[in-house]
Amino acid sequence: MIFGATGDLAKRKLFPSLYQLYRKGEISKNFAVIGVARRDWSHDTFKSHVKDSILTSIGKDENIDEFVSHFYYQSHDVSDSNSYVELRNLSNDLDEKYDLQGNRIFYLAMAPEFFGTITEKLKTEGLTETGGYTRLVIEKPFGHDLPSAEKLNEQIRQSFSEDQIYRIDHYLGKNMVQNIEAIRFANALFEPLWNNRYISNIQITSSETLGVEERGRYYEKSGALRDMVQNHMLQMVSLLAMEPPIKLTTDEVRSEKVKVFRAMREMTSSNVDEFFIRGQYDNGEVQGTKVAGYREEPNVDPNSNTETYVAGKVLIDNFRWAGVPFYIRTGKRMTAKATKIVVEFKEIPMNLYYHPEKPQHPNLLVIHIQPDEGVTLHLNAKKSGDKLKTTPVNLSYSNKGINGINTPEAYEKLLFDCMRGDATNFTHWDEVKLSWSFVDTISTYWESTTSKEFPNYPAGSMGPKAADELLDQDGFKWWPVDGFDVDNC
Ligand code: BG6
Hints:
Layout: E1 2-3, H1 8-23, E2 33-37, H2 43-57, H3 64-68, E3 71-75, H4 81-98, E4 104-108, H5 115-124, E5 134-138, H6 146-157, E6 165-167, H7 175-185, E7 199-207, H8 216-241, H9 250-263, H10 272-275, E8 276-279, E9 281-282, E10 284-286, E11 289-291, E12 309-314, E13 326-331, E14 338-345, E15 364-370, E16 373-382, E17 390-399, H11 408-420, H12 429-448, E18 457-458, H13 465-472
Parallel strand pairs: 1-2, 1-4, 2-3, 4-5, 5-6, 7-13, 9-18
Antiparallel strand pairs: 7-14, 8-12, 10-11, 12-13, 14-15, 15-16, 16-17
The structure holds 6-O-phosphono-beta-D-glucopyranose.
C-alpha cells in the first residue's frame, strides 16, 4: 500500500523501481499495489498514471500492461475510520486474489504530520492483523528535531515494533554508499591503514546545482542541516568510521554505526562556530545559466536566516579516530552535482623524494558516489629519467552510474531489501535519535543568532570562504569534486 500514491515521489521513484524489480523477476506474479491518496480517482485512472510514470522514466517495454494490472486505487481520508475499513476490505480481497498470505508493506510517501494518525488507524481498523508480515516504510523527514522525532517514534511504535519499521535514507540505497563497507572490509589493503596512524583527514562532499525549486515552504523550516546533514551526511560518516562488525547482519552493522554516533564530539552553543559554518546562496550563474538568490525563491522569506549550505568538522572521540577530522560539506546551487568521499593519508615518515619546488602529493582514496560511481587511488610514481621528482598517478575503477537525481536505483534496492525483510540499509531509531541530538545544538544556536553575512556565496560557487578557512586552520584544503585532476590541485 502506497500512501501518497498520486505524489511526486511515487511517480518519479517508486513505480519505476517496482517495475524494474518486476522486470528482473525479483517480484513474483503474486503481488498487488494499492495506491492510497485523497484524489477521487478510479482504478483505471491510477493504472494509466502508473503506466505514464514508467514510460517517462524507463521507456516502452513489453510487459508494462501486465505489471500495471496489479495496481488498484483507494480514495482515502487519512483521519476517517471508514476509509480504513474500505481499505481493509480491498486488501483482504486482493490478499485472496493474489494469494499474498497476509504479507503487507505500508509505504508512507507523504507529509510526516499524518504518519501518527495513519499508523494508529492501520492498527485500530485491523489492517495490521494478518497471518503474514506487516512492515512500515517511512520517508524522511523523521521529525524536525529530537523532541518531534521522539513524539513521532512513540506514535508509530504503538502500532509497529522497531523491527517492522523501515526508515528510508535513500543514500543508504546508493550503490557506492553500500560499497563503503565492501571497500573497507573486503580489502586487506585498506583496513590496516584505516585509522589515525595513517589517515590525516576524511572529506565528504555532497554538492548540488539545483536550488530549492518548489520546496521553499519545506526548506525554510529545514535548511541544509536538517535536510542533508542529520541524515545522509552523518550516515556516510558512520559507515566510514565504524568498527568492522562481527557479521554483516542488520543488528551487528547497526550497533557498530550507533557507536560512531555516540563517539561524535558533542556540540555546545559555545563551540558551534569553531566546528560548523553555514551559507546561503546569492544570485549567480550555474553552468552558464543565471539564477536567482535563495531569498528570491518562491515561498522564501526575503530576509531568510535559513542555510542552504553547511560545512563542518566532525570529531570522533575513540581510539581509532582521535585527532582525525571528518569534514563534511553540502549545499544547493553549487558548481557541480557530485557526491564524493576523499580519504587523505598522512605523509610518509621520511620523504626520499623531497623536492622544495614540488611537494609530494598525499595518497588519496576517492570514493565516487555520484554521478559517476567508482574508486580512485592516487599514488606517486617516478617518471623515467627523473631521479628526484615524483609524479602523481591514478588507479581508477569506474562503474558508469545512472546520472540523475535520487536515481530510482537506490529506491529499487531499498524496496527489494524491505520485501526480503532486510533492514540493514534503513536507519534504526537509535541512529536517528543520536543524529538529531547532534544537529539540534547547531540548529538551536543558528536559529538564535541571525547570520549577518547572508547571502554569503554566489550561486555556482563551491560555498562561502569560511568553509575553506575551516580546513585551512588545520593545515588542509578541500579536494575538488568535479573532475579530479590532481596535477592541478
Ligand atoms: C533529499 C533532500 O533528501 O536529498 C533534497 O531532501 C536533496 O533536498 C536530495 O536534493 C539529494 O539527493 P541526491 O540523491 O540527489 O544526492
